[in-house]
Design a protein that fits this description.
The protein starts with a strand and ends in a 7-residue tail after the last strand. 27% of the residues lie in helices and 25% in strands. The radius of gyration is 20 Å and the shape is globular. The strands form four sheets. Strands 5-8-9-10-11-12-13-14 form an eight-stranded parallel sheet. A seven-stranded mixed sheet has the order 3-2-1-4-18-19-20. The protein has a three-stranded antiparallel sheet with strand order 15-16-17, with no helix packed on it. It has a single domain, classed as TIM Barrel. The protein is an alpha/beta fold.
Length: 390
C-alpha cells in the first residue's frame, strides 16, 4: 500500500514529502509549505539494544508466552521503537533457554515481530559476582563464561542471540569473546569489576560495546585507574548510556558524550514496569518499589536506590534536549541511526530513498516527545488517532 507522509525532516528541518510503497521510501521531495508549531517531525525509527520488558510483561518472568512477546512488540511501536533487542538477564541455564525459545518461536510465528526483533541481548550470567557491579542480578546464577552453555542457548534461540554482556574479569573470558565474535555475536562489557588490563584484553579480543556505562558499578571505586575510565578511554568500545535523568548525572552524560564522540548510543534498559501507571508495586523478585509520576523507579524503603529504568528511549531523547546536552536531531540519531549502524541493520541509512520505511512521525513540545504514527517496513503499526491499526 502506498503512503504519502509530510512533515519536518528531523535533521535538516526542511519540509519534506515521503512516498512509501512496498516497504520502502520511494522518494523524498522538498516542499515549500510553511512550517508551524503543529507541523509534525519525521525521523527514522528508534532502535533499542536493551529492553527487559514493557507494560507489565517481563521477558525474564516465566512462563513467558508467544502472545506476550507479540504484545510487548506491538506496545513498543507506540513508543516509536521499530527495532529492539529483548534482553534476557542472569537466571538458571534452563530458565534462560526457555525464554530464548519462546522469543524465537514468537519471531517465527509473526512476521512483523521478527522484523522488529533484530536479535536478542543476553545480559549475564557471565558477569561480576561482586555486590555493586552485579546490580540486581541474582548472585545464585552468576558464573564464568561457558561456551558450551552459550552454544546451547544460541541453538534454542534459533541463532538470534546477537549481543552478550559479560565481565572480562573471569578466567577464560578472552577465549569466550573470540568465539562469540567469530560466530557473529557482539560482545559488550558490563556489570564488571574488571581491571583496566582485563578490559584492554577484552577489547583486543573483539569486545566492542559497553553496557549502560556508569551503572552496574561499585558505589566507591579508585579515582584512577578504574573500569569506567578505562572503557571511556578505549576507542574500540562504543558506549551505551541510560539518559532517563535518574541513572546518570548530567555531568557524566556530558563527559561520556565528549569522550566517545560518535561512539555513544542511548538505551532504555527498561524493566517490565515501564509503561504502567505511577504507584507502588510488588516486583517478581520480592521487592516493593515505587514508580513516581516523574518516571523514577526506586525501592519503597529508600527513594535514593533505583529499582531499574522505567522510561523509554523517547524520554532519554527529551532529557538530553531539555538539559542542553544534545540537539534533538543528535539525540534522535543516538537512539536510531547509531545503534542501527553499530549492529549493521538495514535502517542504518536513515531517511533516504530506497531505504526500508521504518519511520516515526512525532512532535516535540517543551522537550516532551509525542509519537503520532509509526511505520514498520512501510506498514502503519501505530497511529494515535486510530484504534487497532495492526
Amino acid at each position: 500500500m502506498k503512503h504519502i507522509v509530510r512533515g519536518i525532516h528531523y535533521r535538516t528541518r526542511e519540509f519534506i514529502e515521503l512516498e512509501i510503497n512496498e516497504g520502502k521510501i520511494c522518494s523524498i521531495k522538498s516542499l515549500t509549505e510553511r512550517i508551524n508549531e503543529d507541523t509534525p517531525i519525521i525521523g527514522p525509527g528508534l532502535v533499542d539494544l536493551q529492553i527487559n520488558g514493557f507494560k507489565g510483561y517481563d521477558f525474564n518472568t516465566l512462563p513467558l508466552t508467544i502472545q506476550q512477546v507479540k504484545e510487548i512488540t506491538e506496545a513498543l511501536w507506540s513508543e516509536g521503537v521499530t527495532t529492539y533487542f529483548p534482553t534476557i538477564i542472569t537466571n538458571s541455564d534452563e530458565a534462560i533457554e526457555e525464554a530464548l525459545t519462546v522469543i524465537s518461536e514468537a519471531c517465527s510465528s509473526y512476521p512483523l515481530v521478527e522484523k522488529t526483533i533484530a536479535g536478542i541481548h543476553v545480559e549475564g550470567p557471565f558477569i561480576s559476582p561482586e555486590d555493586g557491579p552485579r546490580g540486581a542480578h541474582s548472585k545464585n546464577y552468576v558464573k564464568a563464561p561457558n561456551w558450551e552453555v552459550f552454544a546451547r542457548w544460541q541453538e534454542a534461540a534459533g541463532g538470534r542471540i546477537k549481543i552478550v554482556t559479560i565481565s572480562p574479569e573471569w578466567t577464560g573470558s578472552v577465549e569466550f569473546i573470540k568465539k562469540c565474535v567469530q560466530s557473529g555475536v557482539t560482545v559488550s562489557i558490563g556489570h564488571t569489576a574488571a581491571t583496566p588490563e582485563q578490559i584492554r584484553e577484552a577489547s583486543s579480543a573483539g569486545a566492542t560495546m559497553s553496557t549502560h556505562l556508569g551503572n552496574g558499578a561499585h558505589l566507591m571505586i579508585p579515582r584512577h585507574p578504574n573500569y569506567i575510565w578505562e572503557q571511556l578511554a578505549t576507542d574500540e568500545l562504543t558506549t551505551c548510556l541510560i539518559a532517563d535523568g535518574f541513572h546518570l548525572p548530567n555531568s557524566f552524560l556530558k563527559v561520556a558524550m565528549k569522550a566517545k564522540g560518535e561512539n555513544v548510543m542511548l538505551v532504555s534498559d527498561a524493566v517490565y514496569l515501564s509503561g504502567l501507571a505511577p504507584g507502588k508495586y510488588e516486583t517478581h523478585i520480592g521487592g516493593k518499589v515505587v514508580l513516581t509520576p516523574e518516571g523514577k523507579l526506586h525501592t519503597a524503603d529508600n527513594p535514593k536506590i533505583l529499582a531499574g529504568s522505567a522510561q523509554m528511549l523517547k524520554h532519554g531523547i527529551g532529557h538530553l534536549v531539555k538539559s542542553k546536552l544534545a540537539s534533538l536531531d543528535l539525540a534522535w540519531e543516538m537512539s536510531s541511526i547509531r545503534p542501527a549502524s553499530f549492529m549493521d541493520l538495514p535502517s542504518k541509512v536513515g531517511l533516504v530513498e530506497c531505504a526500508s520505511a521504518d519511520i516515526v512521525i512525532f512532535s516535540c513540545q517543551e522537550n516532551n516527545i509525542t509519537i503520532h504514527t509509526t511505520y514498520k517496513d512501510g506498514q502503519i503499526v501505530f497511529d494515535k488517532n486510530a484504534i487497532n491499526i495492526k
